[in-house]
Amino acid sequence: MSESTPTATVSNEAPAPEKFPTRVFLTGATGFVGRAVLRELIAKGHQVVCLARDRQRLGKILSEAPAGRIETVKGDLFDSAVADGVKGADAVVHLVGIIVESKLRGQTFRRVHVEGTQRVIEAAQAAGVKRYVHMSALGTRPNAVSEYHRTKWAAENIVRASGLDWTIFRPSLIHGPGGEFMNMMKTFVCDAAVPVLGFIPAPFPVIPYFGSGEAKLQPVSVKDVAHCFAAAVSSPETIGKVLELGGPQTCTWKEFYKICQELIPCAKPWKRLAGVPVPVAKVLAHTFMRLPLLPKALRYDVGQVIMSQEDSVCDARPAEEAFGIKMRDFRTELAAYAEQIGQ
Q1: Is the pTM of this model over 0.85?
Q2: pLDDT at 63
Q3: What domains lie within the chain, and their CATH numbers?
C-alpha cells in the first residue's frame, strides 16, 4: 500500500464495549475469503462458530486464535449443522458460493447459491438472529447473461425478503496470496509446461485470455473484503444496504495479466498473451474442459467465458465511507505478496 493510502485493517482497535462480545455464525470459513474474514472477526473481539466439513482446513487460525474464540460445527448447508451453529448467535455471515458447478457432487449454482441461502436464512429466523451479512458478486442483476449471476440475484432477493437486518456485499475479483485465482495466475505467467492427465508435461508457451481481453475489472484485496464483512457485523448504519467492493485500480484483463507477469518473481518474460476467441473458448468448455486432462485449476466452464466479457467495475466510495477506509491498490498489494503465491 502506498503511504498516501490508509490501511483498511483496524483490527487492533479496542471494540466498543456495548457491542462485544458478539457470537457470529460463519459459513465458508475454510475458503480463501472465509479464512480472512475469520481472522478479522477474531481480531475484532468476536467469538466465531464456523460451519466446516473439515475443521483442520482452518489451519493455523485454530492455534493462533485465543482460547475459546473459535468453535466449529461439522457439516454443510444442507444438514442440521446450520441450525445447530446458528443457535445463540448474535449475527450470521454467509460466504458460501461456487464459481464452477460440479453436478456429480450436487454442487449447482441454484442449489448452493439459492437453496443454500434459503437454508441459512430460515435457520437464522428460527433462532431469532436478526443481523445477517451476505456475500454476493459484482454484476449480479436480474436477467444476467450467466447462471452464476442469476442465482446470486435470486439469493439476494431471498435476503431482502427475509425481514432480517441484512447487508449485502458485491465484490469484484478478490485477490490475495492464498487464493486459487492468483495461484492460477502464477501458473499462467511462470510455467513453461503443465501436466496433462496429471503427469504428462505439455508445453504452455502463452498466457491465455478470452475474447479481446478488453473487459475491465477492479481487483479488490481480500484484506479489504474481510475488513468490510467483519466491520459490518457491528455497523447498524449499513443495514438494508447493498455495497459494492472494488479496488482503486481499473484495468482490462490484458493489463491485469501483464501486471502479474511483471510482478510475480518466477514469471517468464518471453511468454506472450494470447486471446482465445469466445466461440472457440465455449466449444472447449463443452468438450476438452470437461475431461480430467488439465489440472483442475486450469479448467473453466462456459459461464466463466461469458462473465469475462463483461466489465466488473463499481463505485466503491459508499463502502469506503461506510467503514472509513481506502481500498488497497492492486499493483502495490501484489508487489507485497507476490513471493507468497502458491506457498
Answers
A1: yes
A2: 82
A3: 17-175+220-247+313-327 (3.40.50.720), 181-212+252-307 (no CATH)
